[in-house]
Amino acid sequence: xxLINLQFQQHPRYKLIVAANRDxxxxxxxxxxxxxxxxxxxxxGRDLSQMGTWLGVHKSGRFAALTNYRDPxxxxxxxxxxxxxxxxxxDGHIAPEDYLREIDDQEYAGFNxxxxxxxxLYYYNNIHGEPVKVPPGTHGLSNHFLNTPWPKVExxxxxxxxYVSVNEHLxxxxxxxxxxxxxxxxxxxxxxxxxxxxxxxALSPMFIKMPDYGTRxxxxxxxxxDGLVTFAERSYENxxxxxxxxxxxxxx
Length: 252
Description:
Elements: E1 2-8, E2 14-25, E3 30-35, E4 42-47, E5 55-58, E6 63-68, H1 83-90, H2 96-101, E7 111-117, E8 120-125, E9 132-133, E10 137-141, H3 151-164, H4 172-179, H5 197-203, E11 213-224, E12 228-237, E13 240-250
Antiparallel strand pairs: 1-2, 1-10, 2-11, 3-4, 4-5, 5-6, 6-7, 7-8, 8-9, 11-12, 12-13
């Protein structure tokens, strides 16, 4: 379960602003953000179980991010790892819309995928199976469809919009602070995704902290109008701060 907040082609300084949380079981091994040695330019954290990723950027400027679609009916035993969808796009050269159309939906459990670059983004899920061009503006994605008004999605969009709309220079710590919001949503606003009320409550905050599952990392990605990329990651262990990492590079 994850949360992706982004603003696209609306800020005076940045073409793309992404603020995202990755939620996962604490016991699933992962590496923090780094430039992958077995790639030609991927910068991302890495799931060491399946060797894919949930969010990343390439030196070429390609960007992709993934969330699971939360519905017990769309859990496929023996399905391929969804993290490979991000990796294959980042390391490839196919136009994003074409790449999304070529995905075999039946090979994966339910997912959402945003792919493209700072000049053009597309959204896709294997429930509807049709790529959609992301319009300029502020958007949110959790474990349903793009901009589904779940409390955490609406809260994240509102907080991101409130901050970036009045600040040309964006502070990483302020964006990480937004992502660290652990306020639980009231029951009457909770979605019904088939996991039961107690779990819906626990999964409703932007930042999740449960006994064996929660927010493992937060990522801020900024791409300015000159092609300068800032990629920052804040990692957590059992819900507590672990370390910060920051990378900057020029799109080539």
